[in-house]
UniProtKB/TrEMBL annotation:
<dbReference type="GO" id="GO:0005739">
    <property type="term" value="C:mitochondrion"/>
</dbReference>
<comment type="pathway">
    <text>Cofactor biosynthesis; tetrahydrofolylpolyglutamate biosynthesis.</text>
</comment>
<comment type="similarity">
    <text>Belongs to the folylpolyglutamate synthase family.</text>
</comment>
<keyword id="KW-0436">Ligase</keyword>
<keyword id="KW-0479">Metal-binding</keyword>
<dbReference type="InterPro" id="IPR018109">
    <property type="entry name" value="Folylpolyglutamate_synth_CS"/>
</dbReference>
<keyword id="KW-0547">Nucleotide-binding</keyword>
<keyword id="KW-0460">Magnesium</keyword>
<dbReference type="GO" id="GO:0006730">
    <property type="term" value="P:one-carbon metabolic process"/>
</dbReference>
<dbReference type="GO" id="GO:0005829">
    <property type="term" value="C:cytosol"/>
</dbReference>
<dbReference type="GO" id="GO:0046872">
    <property type="term" value="F:metal ion binding"/>
</dbReference>
<keyword id="KW-0554">One-carbon metabolism</keyword>
<protein>
    <recommendedName>
        <fullName>Dihydrofolate synthetase</fullName>
        <ecNumber>6.3.2.12</ecNumber>
    </recommendedName>
</protein>
<dbReference type="InterPro" id="IPR036615">
    <property type="entry name" value="Mur_ligase_C_dom_sf"/>
</dbReference>
<dbReference type="GO" id="GO:0004326">
    <property type="term" value="F:tetrahydrofolylpolyglutamate synthase activity"/>
</dbReference>
<dbReference type="GO" id="GO:0008841">
    <property type="term" value="F:dihydrofolate synthase activity"/>
</dbReference>
<dbReference type="GO" id="GO:0005524">
    <property type="term" value="F:ATP binding"/>
</dbReference>
Length: 420
């Protein structure tokens, strides 16, 4: 279960030397992408960088990278065992995420990273990552309604929780595309702390960096991608002078065109898991804001092809299916529903019932064939591939579904179970 609070993590990392500086990122959507951009830019600039994001994608340790490479499984398991033993010996009773956070922070120390790019797990004020002390810059990404049971029922309450990562004396960067309710709430906290703040304006990238404006004109980016890049670049302009004053951030900007963030608008080939040869769009959209971004991408890139979209979807239990899928699944689209399997390290996460999900989808006006496949993800992939018949196929609704698909694909490509 999820238990927010800093008392347990404080005891758990008491003996850990937080010898590295941090960039701390909170928000509802975009945290992972901003983390990926920052890690890539720092590594390109010769800074030894660690990254900690959540949840993991396929393996529990892939949420931790050192110099853009996933940490070695053997090192992860060794340090995780030490952290768990400490938890047991001291009788702390830490949560799974607190154990993972302590493991990541110890790995950063072990690997002598200079900067750790750390994404908040949930909220901010009481999130276990908020134990960080030596923070170079705080970043607030796009904020929306999510996890209301833990963070509050209104956008203002949720924003106040996420603003809990802001610290006196530490500058911050705020995604300027946030709603006025979000920015007003953040401004109050920023004034209270008396800290420097940059509100990004992706529609005017030259204000942040002339090379960023050039990159935007060269790449066909969606608005949220531009917003996330602006956040990353603005954050780095605060951070870099404190770690590498000789490096010009603008000189690193072209490297952003090489960043890939798995599970977010990712194009994959399903062979040999399925016979389909054409690429498939894989996206972890799991709330209203991220679904809106996915819908924009589908409308801009896939619907002009002139064929209906075939969807393969699953969601976590408790999500508002109508709000997520009704705006993006359109007349004539075909839909397969399924359920992801158990999530390693997060036993409280459950998939919504695929039959109930199918019933909700059938209420969409003019929707085509809708078929439920229970927990048989591979069967759902086979059916959706055949139904699409070479046309657009989108797998979405949960990062845990994305994880299952990537795991099945890896097993199909290497049945021996070797991880490369």
């Amino acid at each position: 279960m999820i238990e927010l609070g800093l008392s347990r993590i404080s005891r758990l990392v008491q003996q850990t030397s937080l010898s590295w500086k941090a960039i701390h990122i909170a928000g509802t959507n975009g945290k992972g992408s901003i983390s990926a951009y920052l890690s890539h830019l720092l590594t390109s600039g010769g800074v030894r960088c660690g990254r900690f994001t959540s949840p993991h994608l396929v393996d529990r340790w892939d949420c931790i990278t050192i110099g853009e490479r996933v940490v070695q499984e053997s090192l992860f398991r060794q340090i995780e065992a030490e952290v768990k033993l400490r938890d047991q010996t001291l009788g702390i009773g830490a949560s799974e995420f607190e154990l993972l956070t302590a493991t990541a922070f110890e790995i950063f120390h072990h690997e002598r990273v200079e900067v750790g790019v750390v994404e908040v797990g949930m909220g901010g004020r009481l999130d276990s990552t908020n134990i960080l002390k030596d923070v170079l810059v705080s970043v607030i990404a796009k904020i929306g309604l999510d996890h209301q049971a833990l963070l509050g029922n209104t956008i203002e309450e949720i924003t106040r929780e996420k603003a809990g990562i802001l610290k006196s004396g530490v500058p911050c960067v705020v995604d300027g595309t946030n709603s006025s309710a979000v920015t007003t709430t953040l401004e109050d906290r920023i004034k209270e702390l008396g800290i420097d703040a940059t509100y990004t304006r992706p529609e005017a990238p030259d204000e942040h960096s002339p090379p960023l404006a050039q990159l935007f004109s060269k790449l066909d980016l969606l608005p949220h991608q531009q917003a996330n890049m602006c956040c990353a670049v603005s954050a780095l302009k605060f951070a870099m002078p404190k770690i590498r004053p000789d490096i010009e951030v603008d000189s690193l900007i072209p490297q952003l065109s090489n960043v890939e963030w798995p599970g977010r608008l990712q194009s994959i080939i399903l062979q040999p898991l399925a016979t389909r040869k054409e690429p498939v769009l894989l996206d972890g959209a799991h709330n209203v804001q991220s679904a809106e971004v996915l819908g924009q991408y589908v409308d801009r890139r896939l619907r002009p092809l002139g064929k209906p979209i075939t969807w393969l979807i699953a969601v976590s239990s408790g999500k508002d299916v109508n709000e997520i899928f009704h705006p993006i699944i359109k007349e004539g689209d075909h839909v397969a529903t399924t359920a992801f399997g158990p999530v390693d390290g997060m036993p409280w996460v459950k998939a919504a019932d695929p039959e109930e999900l199918a019933s909700c989808v059938r209420t969409i006006s003019g929707v085509g064939e809708v078929r439920s496949f229970g927990t048989e993800v591979v069967d759902a992939i086979d059916w959706a591939s055949g139904e699409a018949n070479g046309g657009p196929l989108v797998i979405a609704g949960s990062l845990y579904l994305v994880s299952d698909v990537l795991r099945h694909l890896r097993e199909a490509r290497d049945p021996s179970g070797n991880v490369h």
